[in-house]
């Protein structure tokens, strides 16, 4: 549906989901505000935020009702940043002008909230009461549950140095002196008798230890989301209507 819906179709969206021009869910439709002059619906208040804690005014220009709720012609971020105006049943000219500036729209007429039974096509109130009929509105509280993400703790990695002893077996060698005797053939002359020293240099291997730092493992932290269900309970109140017969106080009807 591309054109704006009728007043009756818009009224049926109260309490249903509201979607922005890109199809993103914004919140829940709360109240319709009509023009004081024409009686046509001009604004809708949308409850946004956790548990519908904030109520924003959204223009109905270009809005249309569908099976899944009300689709408006503004973006979600623009709606949530709209000026905060108390829902007192009527918009003043100053409040309406502020809203028009926010949505970059041409200023129109101020509006009042549509009351149950009001004919939004004419701005007049239908006679919803029969002859001799009196009525009252019965209300009750209902739970609306949601979720929020909170920080529960921090986990960090810490690296510390631990000293330990390692033993390594290394093969080494060294030189030793052995006396080697060889006989001289008979008949050779030229030998001398006297003192003489011969020096021999000995060598040996000794172990040499060096240390080097090498990377052996990569350690990291990974998080995963675990889904679970929790039950939330809270006491709610509701109103009950009963008929009290003044002639017979014991006679009550609900």
From TrEMBL:
<dbReference type="InterPro" id="IPR027275">
    <property type="entry name" value="PRC-brl_dom"/>
</dbReference>
<dbReference type="Pfam" id="PF09557">
    <property type="entry name" value="DUF2382"/>
</dbReference>
<feature type="domain" description="DUF2382">
    <location>
        <begin position="136"/>
        <end position="243"/>
    </location>
</feature>
<dbReference type="GO" id="GO:0030077">
    <property type="term" value="C:plasma membrane light-harvesting complex"/>
</dbReference>
<feature type="region of interest" description="Disordered">
    <location>
        <begin position="224"/>
        <end position="254"/>
    </location>
</feature>
<feature type="compositionally biased region" description="Basic and acidic residues">
    <location>
        <begin position="224"/>
        <end position="241"/>
    </location>
</feature>
<protein>
    <submittedName>
        <fullName>Uncharacterized protein (TIGR02271 family)</fullName>
    </submittedName>
</protein>
<dbReference type="InterPro" id="IPR019060">
    <property type="entry name" value="DUF2382"/>
</dbReference>
<dbReference type="Pfam" id="PF05239">
    <property type="entry name" value="PRC"/>
</dbReference>
<dbReference type="InterPro" id="IPR011033">
    <property type="entry name" value="PRC_barrel-like_sf"/>
</dbReference>
<dbReference type="GO" id="GO:0019684">
    <property type="term" value="P:photosynthesis, light reaction"/>
</dbReference>
<dbReference type="InterPro" id="IPR052967">
    <property type="entry name" value="Stress_Response_Assoc"/>
</dbReference>
<dbReference type="InterPro" id="IPR014747">
    <property type="entry name" value="Bac_photo_RC_H_C"/>
</dbReference>
<feature type="domain" description="PRC-barrel">
    <location>
        <begin position="14"/>
        <end position="78"/>
    </location>
</feature>
């Amino acid at each position: 549906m591309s054109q704006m819906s009728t007043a009756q179709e818009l009224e049926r969206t109260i309490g249903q989901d509201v979607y922005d021009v890109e199809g993103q869910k914004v919140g829940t439709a709360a109240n319709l505000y009509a023009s004081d002059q024409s009686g046509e619906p001009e604004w809708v208040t949308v409850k946004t935020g956790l548990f519908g804690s904030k109520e924003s005014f959204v223009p109905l220009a270009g809005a249309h009702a569908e099976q899944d709720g009300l689709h408006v012609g503004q973006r979600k971020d623009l709606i949530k940043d709209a000026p905060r105006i108390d829902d007192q049943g009527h918009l003043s000219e100053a409040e309406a002008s502020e809203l028009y500036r926010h949505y970059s729209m041409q200023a129109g007429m101020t509006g009042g909230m549509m009351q149950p039974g009001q004919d939004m096509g004419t701005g007049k109130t239908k006679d919803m009461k029969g002859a001799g009929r009196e009525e009252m509105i019965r209300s009750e509280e209902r739970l609306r549950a949601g979720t929020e993400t909170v920080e529960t703790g921090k986990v960090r990695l810490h690296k510390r140095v631990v000293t330990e002893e390692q033993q390594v077996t290394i093969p080494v060698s060294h030189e030793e002196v052995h006396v080697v005797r060889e006989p001289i053939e008979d008949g050779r002359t030229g030998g001398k008798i006297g003192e003489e020293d011969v020096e021999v240099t000995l060598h040996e291997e000794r172990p040499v230890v060096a240390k080097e730092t090498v990377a052996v493992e990569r350690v990291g932290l990974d998080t995963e989301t675990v889904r679970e269900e929790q039950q939330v309970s809270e006491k709610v109140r509701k109103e009950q209507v009963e008929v009290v017969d003044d002639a017979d106080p014991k006679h009550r009807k609900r």
